[in-house]
Write a structure and sequence with these properties.
Blueprint: H1 2-20, E1 26-30, H2 37-53, E2 57-61, H3 68-75, E3 83-88, H4 90-97, E4 109-125, H5 133-142, E5 148-151, H6 157-169, E6 174-177, H7 181-189, E7 195-199, H8 200-208, E8 212-217, E9 243-251, H9 256-271, H10 273-281, E10 285-286, H11 294-315
Parallel strand pairs: 1-2, 1-3, 5-6, 5-7
Antiparallel strand pairs: 3-9, 4-7, 4-8, 4-9, 4-10
This protein binds D-malate (MLT).
Length: about 325
């Protein structure tokens, strides 16, 4: 009898908690430094999702090791619906780069959905003596022992773009890792490092302010927001096509009622005019509704882990 009462009480409490969710602010981990592209995207999304959830969403930046420190923090967090993770293509590259990851990328997370696709751009400090990609390429090859390439560490999108670029132009440059491309951009604008490939959510404002030079877009087609900037592919890097997908994840075992409310809030957010227009300003593409769901994110992550694994292993570069 006592057991039945106890079980009933637990059931009632669980149902009450499910109904009240979210009863307190939700923490969303960004595995990169503040001020960078993933931080920018997360803050725009958090504003839209907290409107839908009628609850605050707090961004927590946990940068370093290409995002794997923050991802691990999220994987180990309490699965109660109050800790989420927003990250990107780096989720799919780190399993190949880190042979001793402390989490299981494909099994330690529940999925909420995709958020946005963000193109990248090849940019350089404003004092680089090159005003076109062709000029930059010949300058870079002539100075490859001196030039430094800023990035957010092994497992980051800027690192991935860097190794793809270096193999495409058959030249290696000195990699300078940061906890995110937010601080890397500060040093690029300051002239401490020479060039970087970074997401439009971080590059567009600096290009518009004339603080960095832009040489090309990493996607197969030009951006509507910057039609005069050619793609790397049309400037000789045949087939170069890289876009940074982004998704929201939760620790495995997060209660279904909470997941359902989070998916609904994400779907409201990606359709909201404020969210869409802010991303358009930053050259990013919100996903269609058909991608803002758990199934779509889960399938994408699995396919991307399979795609990038062999490419990365071929470089022979590992973090550990
Ligand atoms: C960031 O927000 O710093 C980026 O996502 C870093 C990267 O992956 O290049």
């Amino acid at each position: 009898m006592k057991r039945l009462v106890a079980a009933t009480l637990v059931l009632v409490a669980t149902c009450a908690a499910a109904q009240d969710y979210p009863a307190k602010p939700i923490n969303i981990i960004v595995p990169a430094a503040a001020g960078g592209p993933t931080d920018t995207l997360t803050r725009v999304l958090a504003a839209a999702m907290s409107d839908a959830l009628k609850q605050q969403m707090i961004v927590e930046n946990v940068g370093g090791a290409g995002g794997t420190i923050g991802i691990n923090r999220a994987a180990k967090a309490r699965a109660d619906g109050y800790t989420l993770l927003l990250y990107h293509i780096g989720m799919a590259t780190s399993p190949a780069l880190y042979r001793k990851l402390q989490y299981d990328t494909l099994n330690d997370f529940d999925y909420i959905g995709q958020v946005a696709d963000v193109p990248m751009m090849m940019i350089a400090k404003s004092t680089i003596p090159a005003n076109s990609f062709a000029e930059f390429l010949s300058y870079a090859k002539a100075n490859k022992d001196k030039l430094t390439y800023a990035n957010a560490g092994l497992g980051s999108a800027s690192y991935l773009c860097g190794i793809l670029f270096m193999s495409a132009v058959e030249a290696n440059f000195t990699m300078v890792p940061y906890k995110g491309t937010g601080p890397a951009m500060n040093d690029l604008v300051g002239g401490q490092v020479d060039f970087m490939c970074d997401q439009t959510t971080n590059t567009v404002p600096q290009i518009k302010a004339g603080k960095v030079k832009a040489y090309g877009v990493t996607t197969a087609s030009r951006l509507a927001s910057m039609p005069d900037l050619p793609t790397l592919a049309e400037q000789g890097l045949k087939g170069f096509d890289l876009v940074v997908w982004n998704g929201v994840f939760a620790p495995k075992g997060t209660p279904k009622p909470a997941l359902d409310k989070l998916v609904a809030a994400l779907q409201t957010a990606v359709q909201s005019p404020a969210f869409r227009s802010r991303l358009a300003e930053l050259g990013a593409e919100p996903v269609p509704l058909s991608k803002a769901n758990p199934g779509s994110l889960g399938a994408l992550l699995k396919a991307e882990v399979e795609k990038w694994g062999p490419i990365i292993r071929k470089t022979g570069v590992f973090a550990d």
